[in-house]
Amino acid sequence: MAWFKRTEKGIQTATEDKKDVPKGLWYKSPTGKIIDSDELARNLYVSPEDDFHVRIGSKEYFEILFDNNEFTELDKNITSKDTLHFVDTKKYSDRLKDAQEKTKLKDAVRTGVGKSKGKDLVICCMDFAFIGGSMGAVVGEKIARGIDHSIKNRIPFLMISKSGGARMMEAAYSLMQLAKTSAKLAQLADAQIPYISLCTDPTTGGTTASYAMLGDINISEPGALIGFAGPRVVKDTTGKDLPEGFQTAEFVLEHGFLDFITPRKELKNKVNLFLDLIQDQPIR
Asked: Matching PROSITE patterns, A to Z (predicted)?
């Protein structure tokens, strides 16, 4: 039996059915802390008692980072095609349709252009709710076009990663996006335009192997899972117990793969502080 048809063990919840931002009157964090959902939203989806950062999507990140939530969305109507006519437990074409209906998104990334603290900024932000934030041809193309917009208009570029990795339903088309986005970021570097990479929970697979770790500065939210293969796969492959906190943002920072970790409340200020420093502008 093919691996993608196994159901007797492991995670069985369909990716598109998993929730990021909690629904309902109350939210219970993994440490057992309970908070009113409205209060959680006002606190930028961070549990105040234990500082747990709830997964959020592009809608919430744009609200946090763009001044007055004003921005222009680029390439918003690009959608994926089932070029390979892929079928696992359902047709890929049906999976795309279901994901679009449930999330109201066209694919797993959105690109916005607006002002953050008065300065122009291009933001590409991934949405885990759309097939696990998996990276297919549309994700790669929209990131590439976002970088092109940054180069053409000489605007700094911010990439917010939240992904389970390559989209298996697109096979080699998905893997090609690693090289494509990396090449575009090389052009951005040649143009001497700043690139900030923000890793959020989770940043794994091909995303980590390409654009997520290529920033001029690589930052993360607290507690985010950052790695290539998941901890369970690494443990099963090596046959060894993993260090405490393995693949958390704090572990990755300690081992030199991040520049700093920033709480969500400080994200807008920290991003703009770096842009001011690298562009030699007065710090606001």
From this structure: COA_CT_NTER (PS50980)
Which tens digit of pLDDT belongs to each residue from 255-272? Answer: 999 999 999 999 999 999
- Read off the pLDDT of residues 89-105 as tens digits, 9 standing for 90 and up: 999 999 999 999 999 99
Contact 93/131 with Cβ under 8 angstroms? no
The b/e string for 93-111 (b: 16+ C-beta within 10 A; e otherwise) is eebbeebbeebebbbbbbb
| Angle at alpha carbon of residue 174, lines to 22 and 108, rounded to 5° | 25
58-65 vs 267-278: helix axis angle to the nearest 10?
60
For 218-239, give the DSSP string.
EEE-TT-BB-SS-HHHHHHHH-
Find out whether 192 and 157 touch, Cβ atoms under 8 Å.
Answer: no
What is the pTM assigned to this prediction?
A: 0.89
Which token pair is 18? 């998993």
CB atoms closer than 10 angstroms to residue 53: 20
